[in-house]
Amino acid sequence: MPTQNTRLLLSRIGKVCVAITGSTAAEIVEKTAVVVKDNPFIEIRLDYLDQPLLSLPVLKTFLSENAAVTAIATCRRQSNGGRFPGSLAEERDILCQAALCGFKMIDLELESAEAFKQADLQKIRDTSVPLLVSYHDFTSTQDLQHVYDRILKFEPDFIKIVPTAKTLSDNITLIRFLERVSASSNIIAICMGAPGIISRVLGVRAGSAFTFAAATVGEETAPGQIDARTLYETYRIDEVDAATKVYGVAGNPVQHSLSPLMLNTAFRRETLNAVYLGLQTAKISDLLKLVHEIPIQGLSITLPFKQEIMPHLERTDPISEKVGACNTLLRGHDGKLYGFNTDVAGVIGPLEKRISLKGSKVLVLGAGGAARAAVFGLRDKGADVFILNRTHETAQKLAKQSNSKALKKDALPKGQYDVIVNATSVGMAGTKGIPLLGPDDLRAALVFDLVYNPVDTHLLRMARQQNIPVITGVEMFVQQGARQFEIWTGKPAPEEEMLRVVIHALRQHANAAAASHTPETPSVRFDSKMRSTIPPEGTKDSAVRVAKRVKAS
Ligand code: NAP
Q1: Which of 307, 388, 425 most suits a substitution to test ligand 1, by most atoms within 8 Å of the C-beta?
Q2: Is the full-model pTM beyond 0.85?
Q3: 396 ligand 1 Cβ < 6 A
Q4: From residue 1, how far is each of 39, 130, 155, 322 by CA, in Å?
Q5: How does pLDDT run across 2-21, given as a tens digit for each residue?
């Protein structure tokens, strides 16, 4: 039976508890003061403090002055995955003291609870502050019921079980577990790790009493943790319910994909009860299991599954058959999966806005997945296509399949092209490689670089220097996503809004990378010209203007 304190607590808390860290009490107070303006339910990680016990009076003052704040006290020891280097007895004393300082819940890890003598546990219980007993598995998702039974022995007010998802299927294990036990206890369960993102968003609707979030990006207290703003604004955690349709991007890796931002923004804009998640997996069988169990209504498919997914589909559209790959899955009313290729529209759409492709002369650089979409799409529209690739044999194969021409660089026709399309990964952030064409080779009326990170690639800069109009890869990215949205929802996609958020995110990445000077950070270079093309957020028609200016720049 829940105590009165627990019932009161449950009535005060929301779906999201924000974890706050800091090495001094002043730092924690400063961060907490900002967070609680939007989210008064927090966890203070006392184990991150240099001197937890000495910091408590300052935290007490803060909590007494901010009565609306509900704070959990956590002081996890190093041996249990936390940062507290002290002894079991010191942990007990800090938690008991925290209970006297206005904390509304005490988090005690299962390993400590099991190591305590009865009298130690009684000391914590005597505080009358609701007790949460937690368990973290930093490597895998094992028998959750077994952990639950171990915790139940302590009759806590709240039970927290946090395993690590190695596969998408681990989320299914966790969700089924939550559905089973949530009626009989106040359970909080989440999977850590990149494949566990689903559990962070869908766990609450499966019965988790709440979920955890980082205060900001970079302040995560667990692998895979999402920052509070993203959880509310992108994933709309407050609105996810039993009727929410689930979509996602499946691939490996997908952690830095901008698709969740773009498509959740579109769902929100169109007030659709739908959420779009990153589904990171190494195996297609793992993905298929998730798709059927959750169930998932539609998927974006990215590397390395665009071809591998094909035999698992009931049917695909004709262009996917030609390209031999699909990037979009729709779950039909019959529960079966249907495949589409919107990469082709992502290349052709932006080009057709500018030129007539019938009879045009197009040079495609590359012969991989993106090049295949470009070549088949262009051939379908009646363009004359030339293919240049680092590995000539691959170009020859694609040319044969698509009835186009594979050329070596020294055999390129000397005349003018209508368009040059870069579909190699050269120029992409984090990759090295020499562009297949130099400045003298850019004899074209239009240059389209499919690489979108960075927005402003070396190839596009070369083209601009010669006053050749360009199309950035962002336009393809938004177009292929917009077509996916339309396939899934049957509604026109809010393209302007989708473009705006993608450009805004790329700008933020670029600025963060520039500030940190770390080449490993996913980076986008944003020069001053590009920055000036972006109007303030929310400006009506802003993205159309952005597109036009990006086009012109
Ligand atoms: P992929 O299948 O791996 O193909 C990579 C292509 O790049 C191959 O033709 C490869 O040539 C060539 N390449 C790789 N490294 C090279 C180097 N150092 N020098 C010369 N050529 C090199 O990849 P993909 O899926 O086609 O993607 C290609 C690019 O398109 C990526 O940058 C991706 O970001 C971009 N893309 C953008 C969008 C969008 O929405 N804007 C969508 C899809 C893809 P070999 O055959 O010799 O290996």
Answers
A1: 425
A2: yes
A3: no
A4: 28, 12, 10, 62
A5: 677 888 888 888 899 999 99
